[in-house]
Fold this sequence. Notes:
The structure holds 2 protein chains of 2 kinds.
Chain A: E1 16-21, E2 33-39, E3 42-49, H1 57-61, H2 70-74, H3 81-96, H4 102-130, H5 135-155, E4 164-165, E5 168-169, H6 177-200, H7 203-209, H8 217-223, H9 228-231, H10 239-242, H11 263-287, E6 306-314, E7 317-325, E8 331-337, H12 339-345, H13 347-351, H14 356-366, H15 370-374
Antiparallel strand pairs in A: 1-2, 2-3, 4-5, 6-7, 7-8
Chain B: E1 7-8, H1 9-14, H2 18-35, E2 39-40, H3 46-55, E3 69-70, E4 78-82, H4 90-99, E5 105-109, H5 110-115, E6 138-140, H6 147-162, E7 167-168
Parallel strand pairs in B: 1-7, 2-3, 2-4, 4-5, 5-6
Helix pairs in contact in B: 2-6, 3-6
Amino acid sequence: MPVQAPFELEKLSNKEYILNMGPQHPSTHGVLRVVLKLEGELVKDVFPDVGYIHSGVEKLCENRTYPAIVPYLDRLDYLGAVNLEWAYVLAVEKLCGIQVPERAEYIRVILAELNRVMSHLLWYSAFGMDVGALTPIFYAFREREEIIALVEAATGGRLTHNALRIGGFRNDLPKDFLPGLSRFLSSFEKKVDEYEALLIDNVILTARTRGVGVLDPELAVNYGVTGPSLRGSGPAWDLRRTAPYSVYGKFDFRVPVSEGRDTWSRLKVRMDEMRESAKILRQAAAALPAGEVSAKVPRVLKPAPGEAYARVESPRGEFGAWVVSDGTERPYRVKFRSPSFSNLSVLREIAVGCNIADIIAIMGSLDLVIPEIDR
Amino acid sequence: MGLTDGLDERLVRKVPGAPVVLAAAEWAINAGRANALWTLTFGLRCCAMEMMAAGAARYDWARFGFEVPAASPRRADLMIVAGTVTTKMVPLVRRLYAQMAEPKYVIAMGSCAISGGPFAYDTYSVVKGADKIVPVDIYVPGCPPRPEALLDGMLKLQKKIKQSKFTAEAA
């Protein structure tokens, strides 16, 4: 399959040259090709070439029954898997008019927030490696493995949980889950302070990221940038607060924003978000009601013809699932709105004019997951 | 593998003492190769996260000699195909493998790299196994495999390397 060159070589001046970053590049976190037009160290143009991990998930969904689609969502964004499952399951529940028991909603919140912390921890370690700090990964994975052990006990999977069912859950939480969760939460905020002291407040990192990749809020909104990348530019747009789904309206938490608009602000927002997630986890564990974990759902699910759209705040931003039913047991069409795709599309606007080393920091701060872009 | 690969066994037997010297050299070189495998950092999908976990604090593959993740294929000994290989990615995987210096080894990690995994049956863009493109030494099943499973696969690879012979039976 020939790949079209995004820049015409003849049109380059003799000082300019083209550099391929990726598809195999440690800092693209997967297989993203970024074609750079450079003049010395200065970036003149950026062209992200996506599709290297396109596996046709949306098309596959048309050949799967409704419950069988859930595992594919884990494989789109393996860092915040429960959040993505949630968007899809929410859309199908909307389509079928299923009312989820309250205990299941709380368990979903707990798992989704644990996923968010897991995702931000991995972003933290990967960002550290991108900019040349190898220590963060060893700190962050220490806590990440603790969370993985918890989530694995509850769902059976380390990354690809396949936890959510349409209507609730298959099983209740294991007996020792809540004590384990409170043990983890008892020291987690202190660990976040440690991470922040180690990397985010580091003088070298601050010098590399302050004033780099400035993203104006209007530009961000125009490009559909969401999640921590948007909140680093100012707008307090968090679906958990602005359009609360499930039981998020009942929790007391802050939406961390930063007015700095640069790469450093986006890092800072993510660190604060981990603290807020810990707050939500504590409240959800304390208020977890007793009862059933699953609604009554027919074994063969055949929603009435129609369509439904649901969106959740995934660790990377707004993830949406649009499901169209034609009355059979398989969906007619499923479309996913992935936050990484929109966040990547703004790269050209903010990276042109910076140095080549800054591209790595900017892309790291956008926190891209490539299978979610390519689907 | 140059001189160390495929020496004619009949020729070796003719020289007095040669099999003994060769066996000692074999042991030493194989031990060196097996215990200093540099891995190419080449993550494709979910499996890459488990690969990172295997290298990070709890599992720590440095204990077994997988100390250095090589960002460039030219200094890597081992390619771990961690994830789905798509049609668009095929020429690049081939090129990465070609750029690695001999002796080189490949681990297919996860069901996508083994057979296409959950995308095997009806996707138009997924290659049904990394072994359709490059020769694979070890298969590690799982979706994704646990870090323990990957470590087990890597230890199996070490065992395989330690058993390799320099002499070849004459055809």
